[in-house]
Amino acid sequence: MMSNETTRRDVDAGDIQAIARTAFLSLKAARYMLLRVTEADTAREWLRSLEPASVAGSSTTDGQKICQIAFTAAGLMALGVASDVVKRFSPEFLEGMAGNDNRSLRLGDTGANAPANWNWGVGDREPHVLLMLFSDKDEIEAFANWMLSDALAAGLSRIEVLSDSDMDGFEPFGFKDGISQPSFDWDRPRTPGTRSDQDYTNLIALGELVLGYRNEYGLLTERPWLEAGDKHAGMLPSVPRERHDLGRNGSYLVYRQLAQDVRGFWRWVKDEADRCGITKEQLAEAMVGRKLTGSPLADLTLGRPIPGVGVHREGNNGFLFDTDPDGLSCPIGAHIRRANPRTGDMPGGRKGAIDTLLTMLGLTVRCDRHPTSSTLPWPRNTTVWPFFRSEDDAVASARFHRILRRGREYGEKLDRDAALAAGPVDEGERGIHFLCLNANIARQFEFVQGAWIASAKFAALTGEQDPLLGNRRPFPDTPVANQPELTDGFSRPGAPPQCRHARGLPQFVRVRGGAYFFLPGLTALKWIISD
Amino acid sequence: MIPQDRIIIVAKVTAGRLDALRSLLKTMTLNGAPGMADPANALVPFGNFDNIHFARFVVLADNTLGDLRDYPEIARDKFDPYLCFMVDCDGDADALLARMAQGSPRMKEIFAHCEGFDQSADLLGWMRKYRVEPMASYVNWVGRSVLQVRQEDRLHRHLRDALSAIQLTNPQDIFTHLKRQAESCALTPAPPTPLAWRIRKLVHMLLPIVPVLVCLACLVLFPIITIVVLSVVTAIVAVPFAIALRHHEQTDPIVCQPYEASHVNELRLGEDHDVTNQYTAMGSIKPGWFRLCTERVILYSINWVARHICTRGALGRIGTIHFAHWVFLDQRRRGFFCSNYDGGHEAYMDDFINKAGFGLNLSFSSFIAYPVTNWLVARGAWLEQDFKRFQRHHQIPTDVWYKAYPGLTARDLARNSRIRNGFERTAMNDDEIRRWLAEI
């Protein structure tokens, strides 16, 4: 629900880096330059010469050369930001994606995914600065070379310059990508936590994306500040307690380079599909939860509009899983159901006052079961008093756990039929540069990755992780379990019994590198690179 | 069914013995998984006692003494750490205590670090003497025994393997086939519920209800007098309570807590080694009788609800807690809370805030440094980051933690029971069989 329909919010569009608002889709090529600072003074001077585009200036990007800048915590230190200022950033950012074993465990970065095996992100291959460059295809090479030679001359060293490739909006496995994204309340502030949030909403408070604005709790997410006495503090907007806001208009950027084994994927899918008497496309679509073209597997629309789902996306995005509680149309463990379960604050959506109260006390979960063919008979809520099945309420409300994805594909496109044949020995890697923005790494990216994607217990399932992204490590992966539970399954509740549980899924996606960055607002950027 | 019981032993650690105690406790844990008990460890081989669900040893050290500085009346309080030994078990806890004293006499070595104990002391007598009763306790599913959990897990694994090898299509054929396949799985029927336990439970349930019934009866019989009396009582109790509550909520000192990276990382070392995690936290109750009385009434209510309403799979909307206890300490100046929950820590806290924030506010807002509440239920935990820092700040690493069924969540256990219920039926119609198969 919107409050103050007529009040437009004061957003510093000129101070927010443009990537928060646009993916620069009209610019078909990108380069991700991962750099380390060796000479802070000259590096700062060179960085000052760059002109990162802002949200205000990005309305027409056609034919432009765009640059966006982000830093790791190590990068801020290397550029000369005082360590007691760096310490005020969020703990996850400070520790880094590969910063401790517990984090790696939670993110599924163990086994082949372990940071020790990464190509970049750890030790002296931990980047300091991320430059994201976007332009037309025929200009990107020259643009990147020019930037790189300037950077090298200015006291930065190169870890990697990673290229993207244009797959026409499809990801390497062959699925339409980037369909489901949260919409943010850029124009008019949303009042979160009202009764309408008992239903799923795709319209999310700007504070979940950009620091300095109200988040889904109606609060300002914690962000770094400067004391009035700190160097050049006056450059930054002041906030209460005589502090200056270093975080305002910034965001945290998560970057994971994910290699996809396209041949391995389609070969396994083909074998399993043959066993079950379906086509490989049908099985792969069940694993993703969408058709290759991006449309949902079945008509799961609820007959009411969803806030924040644009009209042009309604066909592919205007649905919920409430009408498919048993996963008969879209398996519960399917990738899109894990990445965004489309849950509201109340299981089954909005309720009356009495039902709300009863649900809060745990006395009933009355999901409105739509009489569609997708629901199994034997109404599940009438078997035991007090008619409560906590399975129906196993998944957290989605609005606290959304991220804005800004990824691009890389490597050579491989057709799914061609993928079945043996590849050349020296075949290049393909995959996704997974980039996403969020205001609170722990509650947003790490939650989605840990509790939904990598978890072997998502939505009361057992023995399976995300069918695409899972690392397939047994869990618990410790000496505690004498019978570790395998996590390499995938179940399709709608399939006949002998085909319902696929087992032995190989690992299809491998983490090749990653880091947490801070994408500063332009004023904060000026402060960071000021002398 | 077998009701669940708990052992909670709390005793002061002898001065100067803390480090020795901690290193001794460390010998009970597994390499590479800090805090995770070796089920066959030499001191207390938990795995030998087949009716223990969860157990823990935790040194209750107070992290939060610095927060007392805004409360002059208690600011100079000293605190000596306690050792807490906690067990959730099936059947009579005292009988288990006797078995443990008999079966793992080396427990003496642990308690020898506590006041009032020396190696020659009578272990059982000492443990009985230092047993405390929690103010409130929660059991995920009253009556589900360890034996049942293990048998049903075995049945589930067996059926799942049999199902994936099956070539039949008719539901009735599948059901018959699976029943035959899993014949060998032992499923012990639940023993009769002890009569004494049922009576105690009934009395406990009626205790707060009787006054309500009496009032209602009076209201019918002598309406006017009753209304007058009730109004007067309300005016005397409720109005001053509301005024006092708002006064406290608006004037309690706000204690800011920094994020303590090293403390949080120490806690994390002991997390995510299993699908279930342990949680222990302690803090000081705000001084004065008002907060203490409020806390006692609230914990009484939580205990009542947990014992009589939330007995099958969820506490309010939270379906991830196996067992939880709220205990007072130090002549009720402090309290500690222990739970065993499924999933990661961040997810547990998010679940709590969003599904049961009011419950968090009720049960912890009497503690010093809790984020500001409105009318006991609002705000508080919904000040998300303040709350998350508060709870990490008060959390204590659990030194030794044992779970009898690694890898299984509370929801797994409930599902396995449903599978067993279906399996034990003599006949089901096709639809029922399909539903049953979907669970496997």
Can you walk through the features of this model?
With 531 residues, chain A is an alpha+beta fold. Chain A has 14 helices and 16 strands. In chain A, a hairpin with a 3-residue loop joins strand 8 and strand 9 (243-245). The two termini of chain A are 46 Å apart. In chain B, the strands form 4 sheets. In chain B, strands 1-5-4-12 form a 4-stranded antiparallel beta sheet. Chain B has a 4-stranded antiparallel beta sheet with strand order 6-8-9-7. A two-stranded antiparallel sheet of chain B has the order 2-3. Chain B has 3 domains: 4-143 and 253-403, no CATH class; 146-189 and 409-439, no CATH class; 195-251, no CATH class. By secondary structure, chain B is of the alpha+beta class. Chain B has helices at 18-26, 93-103, 107-111, 123-129, 146-164, 171-181, 195-221, 223-251, 261-269, 289-308, 345-364, 384-394, 410-423, 430-439; strands at 4-12, 29-30, 33-37, 52-60, 82-90, 136-139, 276-284, 321-329, 334-342, 373-374, 378-379, 400-403. Chain B is 46% helix and 17% strand. The two termini of chain B are 24 Å apart.
